Amino acid sequence: MSTSEVSTRRKPGRIPRLIAAHFKLAWEVLCRIPALARWPVRQVMLKQLYFTGTESIVTIGLVGFLVGLIAVTQINNLVGRNEAMTLQIMIWTIVRELGPLLTAIVIIGRSSSAFASELSSMQVNAEIKSLRRMAISPVSYLVLPRVFAMVLASIALTFYFQVVAIGTGVIVTKMRMDIALGSQTMNFLEIITFNEIAASLLKSIVFGIVVSVVSCYHGLRRKSAMTEVPQAVSQAVIRSLLAVFVGDGIIT
Question: How many of the other CB atoms lie within 10 Å of CB of 136?
């Protein structure tokens, strides 16, 4: 049997093993939640929350403003002066879909690469091995706080993105249609339902978990040289994007 035939036979089992490895890491994180009661772990979580959440506010705000401006302009051109339809389409596009999805993409660009790079460097420099020698679990001390920080940041940034985008849309609609802001706000609160809010919240939680687990998994994989760090970062970003789009399709 040739080498090419052997490699071809092994490929089909690679993806299931990779998915199983990610689920295993997620399960380990879930089992180690009590470690958050320790101050060193909470301290790492707060630092990661600042990096992932607070430092992304400007970027998310700018993206939300541009998305709201573009979306409401196209919607107004499509439906005319129909205020109710304009608000409904904004809820469908921004609250249910674009809010969680674009927030996850921004987080991947900023934090997924950083997580993978940092953990990969620690792996190459034998810092992970040193933690194990000191009886400190890398999952408890490194992965758990990053996962929780990214989930919390994902929820907060998604809400912030939606507020900015919807607010921009409402203001643009007022300027183009001369409709009072108070009237639009009341109509928006009447139209939006619990299902839209729940779908947005579920997506932001799932995306936060998926991106953080995938990034940490590729960061913790065994490496022998610094030249493997860029490869881990590239894989973390690409597979995080793929996992987010697959998750979005499943939830939708």
Answer: 13
